[in-house]
Amino acid sequence: MTATWVGGGYINGTAEYVYLPGYGLAWAQAPFGYALSLVVGGLFFAKPMRSRGYVTMLDPFQQIYGKRMGGLLFIPALMGEIFWSAAILSALGATLSVIVDININMSVVISALIAIFYTLVGGLYSVAYTDVVQLFCIFLGLWVSVPFALSNPAVSDIGVTAQNEVYQTPWLGTIDMADSLMWLDSFCLLMLGGIPWQVYFQRVLSASSATYAQVLSFLAAFGCLVMAVPSVLIGAIGASTDWNQTSYGSTPPMLKDESDMILPIVLQHLCPPYISFFGLGAVSAAVMSSADSSILSASSMFARNIYQLAFRQSASDQEIVWVMRITIFVFGALATAMALLTGTVYGLWYLSSDLVYVIIFPQLISVLFVKGTNTYGSIAGYIFGLVLRIGGGEPYLKLPPFIYYPGWSREKKVHHVTKKVEYFIMQKFPFKTVSMLASFLGNVAFSYLAKYLFESGTLSPKYDFLDAVLSKHSKEIMDKATLVGNDNIILSELAPVTPRLSTTLAGTFTNTEALSDGESSPDSSNHENE
């Protein structure tokens, strides 16, 4: 579980934010955000999901909101997984290109192929076992390189540069009052938006018991914090370096717009060559450990919730496994293609992880903890969240906002290398969290409104075109049965019904012997057939 969260983006991104002047450690939210998301997930979500015996994260949605709504919720979940894999694969390409003089595209394709191959062959087992090795590689690789980088003569004492300005602003960083809402918004996004991922529930739902699933989450939270320490140190080293004395050149990385590569740059220019290979191995291992589980979880959601439950209820286990293998390959290829072809992978990943937070998180709370929500509310919440989030725009994708939230400002960004000036709208308002709350309240309000209108008879039953309110009560019993596995339930699986014989008119027509004899008949008839 730790290895899944500690990806290339996590390691590179943490180092980048600690290094960036004007941000610093105060803005490196990923380690604390994700660690807390695992704690919150363990406290509130792991137990109900595991004890109800679901197979994927979308199961509760399909059980309560129906198959079509499950399909709609699959879209942001799938986009999140694929863009995430693509983002970390492109991080790998960037890292490799700094240290080794080989074609980036080749290296990304090869590492993606390796990850896809062992995921294809062994499924969750191979992902789990390779994660152990990869986590060990990450830990070893980064910790081996930190002392070498620290002892480099070009690096001044990081204890001094934490508070005082030496080569750039102190790396501890500060949060201005004006930015505090934005900081909180991003923090909630990481903490609560880190929960509704199939990658996380894949681990939770395959744990041997609900309690064990909780323990797993807490241990992984601790693991995530530990694994971020070398990243933070490398970012701090980058902020305390006189680049003039290194082989990198006199211009610091931020003025070359290379601050996102600070980790590989430190490994390359401040450590001996054989050590920088260790560090590179660490980043590659981190990327593979996250990409494989992400691709596996996307394909397991597709195979179970879309293919099996929506199209082919009678599919055998073998068929589902083959569908999964094909989709692992397809999704893996998609992620790799996106990593190589689009420059805006990070923008896509930000947007899709926002959608997971704004759309799926409130729906997950409603499904697990709010009684009486239904498909109408779910659709309303989905639309609210989508419109409010997309309306806020995304500067990474050059997506202009059409909703200007209070406190917006027009900012300019200068590219240091090309001297190009770009203008974008900066939204300081915590609109992501507001969209999430609006989505949740919309879900609850519209659910109860629909329930009231249909049950009080204000709207006639024929308008309940989603069968969400009135036929729900008869369907719930059915759904529980179909979610168990197969449609053709064997007689012996059903609990024996003992009739209550009363001396009414109906009782006189009941053949009591036939009823009591019904226990042994299916077995005896089976033997005759054989």
From TrEMBL:
Pfam family, one: SSF
UniProt subunit comment: Homooligomerizes at cell surface. Interacts with SEC14L1; may regulate SLC5A7.
Function: High-affinity Na(+)-coupled choline transmembrane symporter. Functions as an electrogenic, voltage-dependent transporter with variable charge/choline stoichiometry. Choline uptake and choline-induced current is also Cl(-)-dependent where Cl(-) is likely a regulatory ion rather than cotransported ion. Plays a critical role in acetylcholine (ACh) synthesis by taking up the substrate choline from the synaptic cleft into the presynaptic nerve terminals after neurotransmitter release.
Family: Belongs to the sodium:solute symporter (SSF) (TC 2.A.21) family.
Catalytic reactions of this protein: choline(out) + n Na(+)(out) = choline(in) + n Na(+)(in)
Protein name per its UniProtKB record: High affinity choline transporter 1
Ranges that cross the membrane: 26-46, 72-100, 106-125, 132-150, 181-200, 212-237, 274-299, 320-341, 347-369, 376-392
Keywords: Glycoprotein, Ion transport, Membrane, Neurotransmitter biosynthesis, Sodium, Sodium transport, Symport, Transmembrane, Transmembrane helix, Transport
GO CC, one annotated term: perikaryon
Membrane topology annotation: Multi-pass membrane protein
Any GO BP: synaptic transmission, cholinergic
Compartment annotation: Presynaptic cell membrane
Domain of life: Eukaryota
